[in-house]
Write a structure and sequence with these properties.
The protein is of the alpha+beta class. 30% of the residues lie in helices and 34% in strands. The radius of gyration is 14 Å and the shape is globular.
Length: 145
């Protein structure tokens, strides 16, 4: 993935870490780029979740559920604090396309993370897999690697 132009320097550094986290499936550095009050909007939930633990749990599970995940395009807003990342993946044999919207604060911390996904059957497959894995409890330390 090529670097984004015109990103706020702190957002650019955090986005670089984000890509490394997703590529390696090692979420150990995620808390370092996440605001404790982050709002997490998932295609599997009507209301946003709040807090770093919610994002950590979502990313741990997404990296396990989504197969052949890759980002294809990215764009940034003029202020350099919002990015849009287009992705594709497979979920149980279903092909999915989606977008991650990430908003950073001045310190480069993720303050909002939103995922949109299509088609409906892929989003439903994701919801079903997430439901099997998530009981509402925060991830154990052993799951953070």
């Amino acid at each position: 993935m090529t670097a984004l132009l015109h990103l706020h320097p702190a957002a650019a550094a955090s986005l670089e870490k984000w890509h490394a986290i997703i590529a390696s499936k090692d979420v150990g550095d995620l808390p370092s780029i996440t605001s404790p009050e982050v709002a997490v909007h998932l295609p599997t939930a009507f209301n946003p979740y709040r807090g770093g633990e919610a994002l950590l749990l979502a990313i741990i599970n997404a990296t396990q559920i989504l197969e052949d995940f890759s980002y294809h395009r990215q764009a940034a807003t003029a202020d350099g604090r919002n990015v849009v990342l287009e992705f594709s993946a497979r979920i149980g044999g279903k092909t999915a396309k989606g977008i991650d919207f990430i908003r950073f604060d001045d310190a480069g911390k993720i303050v909002e993370f939103e995922v949109m996904m299509r088609p409906l059957n892929a989003a439903q497959a994701l919801a079903a897999e997430m439901a099997k894995r998530v009981s509402g409890a925060p991830p154990a330390a052993s799951e953070m690697k």
